């Protein structure tokens, strides 16, 4: 039985009316995916202090194990109803998730699968890279796990404060990961990445402050209600805040004109880190952009839908035109081509978000989730094959000439990944993803955007097919360029990564409906 509140007076303590009401129960299963990744990061940090140098290779396998364990709680969560925690008083998961800061619904779980699965593949790619490039193992694995935990937290965040914190937890370790490369390019790339990201974050925080001032809340659904009923004198402030907030997330997605950091950062980072940024970093920014637009800025749906449609058209065009410049016979690297390709792919990922604004519904977001899952799988596989060639000393496009004669299975895997990215058979899963995105644009009445996408898909065919053709070209036709020899037997983790990604891509090409089963259900 609680005592009544006392009137404050000198020497009289202020009693709390109901101390029990301040204590919340935490749904540990709901928060398990990011929590396990964070605990694994702490375990790696502590183990690094006590393990002798000769046994620090075990830290890599500890990281792989931690990420695999973080994926396990997704299985029971996918089969149940959305779960929420960290809610305001009088708000329960059974009645309303509007006042909750963490919600594990189908949207969050699908992006957590992409984030943690992509981090797991990047960790497998990193096992040999850390040893061969003599990177500081303890720091590398701790930073990778920390960034992955932030990327897994972000899609489940349902208030602006948690979104910003999760985004920075995902981003700050990534700066350091890029800088760990020891040949001098890492520090320069990390500095460019850091400065541009900090500027984008500052702009986003200013926008969020404007949105909070206009709506009176930080919870996304409450923000939407506040913006819809905001008095006329606050409308300009709210609209400016929405625009500035979108700028920060557009940078993370690498949308034009906030894409300029991508080519230099990817080429200067260790190869697994470049692959991680192209998939997990992009997925984190995309999930945050989807949340703020579809939930918080729902009253401005038609406006931000048009803005995202224009950004999508510009981004896919800029990315594909930039990739066309990566010609065979030049000194430009294959990683740089994949960097520009990732910018173009970001444009495709933005199309369903724009369609959601026009449709006034979250239904088109399923296309974004499906395409992100497909893109993440095949793009990390392509980075894996580039890592194979990089062991021979270089990653120029001409270094892939005649790869079939030196590394038959690696060449076949890369050719298949490139066909998936291009959307050509037998890479049916890539074609399936593009069709789903194309249909979302058409159904929302964005026919002009669908035409722009179709033109860009044709443009992208050129550089993907040129690279694929190089794999089977005679080595002597390279002119003065000497083919890079095969370097012994592939390390086990690298071979396992290529086998895993290639097998998964083949299975999804045979049964692409499995992707829809993963992302199925009500997203919000």
Automatic annotation (TrEMBL):
Organism encoding this protein: Kitasatospora camelliae
GO molecular function annotation: NADH dehydrogenase (quinone) (non-electrogenic) activity; NADH dehydrogenase (ubiquinone) activity; quinone binding
Transmembrane segments: 28-51, 58-78, 107-128, 140-157, 163-181, 193-220, 240-262, 274-297, 303-325, 337-358, 370-390, 411-433, 445-473
Reaction catalysis annotation: a quinone + NADH + 5 H(+)(in) = a quinol + NAD(+) + 4 H(+)(out)
Membrane topology: Multi-pass membrane protein
GO biological process: ATP synthesis coupled electron transport
Subcellular location: Cell membrane; Endomembrane system; Membrane
E.C. number: 7.1.1.-
Protein's UniProt name: NADH-quinone oxidoreductase subunit N
Listed PANTHER family: NADH DEHYDROGENASE
